[in-house]
Specification:
The complex is a heterodimer of chains A (430) and B (167). The longest helix of chain A is centred in the middle third of the chain and has 32 residues, at 199-230. Helices cover 56% and strands 2% of the residues of chain A. The radius of gyration of chain A is 25 Å and the shape is globular. With 430 residues, chain A is mostly helical. In chain A, the strands form two sheets. Chain A has a two-stranded antiparallel sheet with strand order 1-4. In chain A, strands 2-3 form a two-stranded antiparallel sheet. Chain B has one helix at 7-34, and strands at 45-47, 60-62, 67-72, 75-80, 92-93, 98-100, 107-108, 114-116, 125-131, 134-143. Chain B is 17% helix and 27% strand. In chain B, the strands form two sheets. Chain B has a six-stranded antiparallel β-sheet with strand order 1-10-9-4-3-2, with no helix packed on it. The chains are: A mainly alpha (430), B alpha+beta (167). Chain A binds chain B through residues 168, 171-172, 174-176, 189-190, 192-196, 198, 200, 331-338, 348, 351-356, 360, 414-419, and chain B through 31, 34-36, 38, 40-43, 63, 66, 81-82, 85-91, 100-105, 118, 120, 163-167.
Chain lengths: 430, 167
Amino acid sequence: MNVKERVRDSTIGRSIFRIPERVTERDRAAGHWASFLMHLYPVKVRRVELTFKYSAFLGVASLVLFGSLLVSGIFLMFFYVPSPANAYGNIQAIQTEVPFGQYLRNVHRWSAHLMVLAVAAHMARVFYRGAYKSPKEFNWVIGVLLLVVTLLLSFTGYLLPWDQLAYWAVTVGTAMASYVPIVGDQVRDLLLGGPTVGSATLLRFYVLHVAVLPVALVALVTAHLWRWRKDSMLTTDEIGDPDEPVAKLQPGLPMTEPANGEPIVLDGKRVLGVVPGKPAAGDRKELSDEDPVMVWPHLLVRHAVAALAVLFVVLLIALTFDAPLKEIANPTDTPNPEKAPWYFAALQELLAHFHPLVAGVLVPGAIVMGLMALPYMDRNPRFGPEFRRIARITFTIFMVIWIILTLIGFAFRGPSWSWVWPWEEWHGEL
Amino acid sequence: MSDALDRREFLATGWKVGAGLLAAAGLWTSWDYLWPRLGAGFAAKVKTVAPDAVPANTVLEIPEARAYLTKVNDEVVALSEICTHLGCKVPFCDSSGQFECPCHGTVFNRAGDHLAGPAPRGMDRYKVEIVDGVVEVDTSEKTSGPAPGTETINEPPLGPPCGDSHA
Ligand code: HEM
Ligand code: FES
């Protein structure tokens, strides 16, 4: 008996590790029931979920980045006091006096930007896969809420360094709120805690940033993962010939697509236990994409590799680039140009052309509402890309417009929001 | 079954009503708790200069009041330097004699009339009073700027703008 086995077999060891040795599939399944963290994972997934092309592991990447933000954020909190008299100096001290302070601040800042990217890309990937379709509509809605909370986290964090970038981006961002009909001014005053961005604002944003929003995000992520786990064995992608709409019936899977294209759930139940599938031995048939595979170890190792890859990228970026810090916030001097954070650059570009009620309220409101309504409006039950041309084209057009507007606002705008070629004069701020 | 509300029904409805009331009370108290106590901050009266020192062809910045003083048709006015579009500080451009907002390029003339750009109205004004021969700006009393198209004064630009004006 080696040391590890001895520890596991002791009275205390057995009380801690209730997961059996994972020899058979049954043991592995039991391992899921016995562990809190593992039980957020399904026991089996369709084999296609192991591939990079399926999800690009963007959901995992978002989660890992959030973990990186939690850890680096808690470290930053030890040296940061949210008041106009301290904040800016604290950030300077973190960068110059605290060992590894600059590095931690870089990790936090770049993880935040990457998380916005990862969450948005995750959403797009889910869209193109058609994975928001029945019965997963509501998990898509939870996903949209997660995107909103991620943006709010980033935006509230943006103010905390209390530099010129922070002060004016938040001034403009919160002024947009006051254009909301009827309640706008009140919402803005409540956010700012006063007539202009000031000490009350900094404290309010800090509390939102380190307590309210992270808790909301954790709650939403938990529900999101739980639903993913529950739906994990539903057959989704229809791989087939467009001329032959009849799907193969897959025994052992809870959901299949019969001839009329309406997905059904066999005997009305989702799978909670081990799915009866292939015989344990003797079957040497090639597995198809839709065949179930054990999550432990196949999906877990892939997630571990994806997590390490993301952390490695964050580490590299944080070692190479320092998070920006401009001059201390000065309410009497707006930098020219004043730029919102890049993920609001498209909105800022629209703000220069349309009334703020349109650009700052109606457009973002329509985007969020439209995304949430999408799974209920798209009544097409098919998953294969060849059956979803209109949906794919529409989504792509909107996305491309948004990316172009973002690029223009971020890199092509200079003093007084005039057009400046980025290679002549760079005005992008991160 | 009697028509009278039995205990089971009473409890089944009662707890929902109770929870609803609790939620409403929670919402109300949180709102009140978080509502900013205004009157603090810069919403106060700021003493500035003698009326004669207020220029009629340019503006005088009063940073403590976040305002500019200027004379419009011989009358002292205080223009809030907070842009009516999205709150940036609007600087005065000496070469053109106009205000140019750096954020989205709104242009106002010396009297705060809206000339071009995305702001929905002209610059807001604070109440001014002459107290003991000194102009006093009351930053707690603000009137919204004039609608676009209003011409309080008619002053063409004196020269070239400071920023490239917004296309
Ligand atoms: C999804 C999660 C999060 C996002 C997107 C996010 C985003 C940001 C951003 C953009 C900043 C400005 C960074 C900078 O200028 O360096 C910031 C600062 C900060 N964040 Fe976070 N954050 C997240 C989670 C957290 C958590 C969980 C905590 C603490 C428990 C935290 C604590 C802080 C602190 C103390 C600062 C100020 C220090 C600084 O500016 O360097 N953050 N955050
Ligand atoms: S804030 Fe002045 S033009 Fe937008």
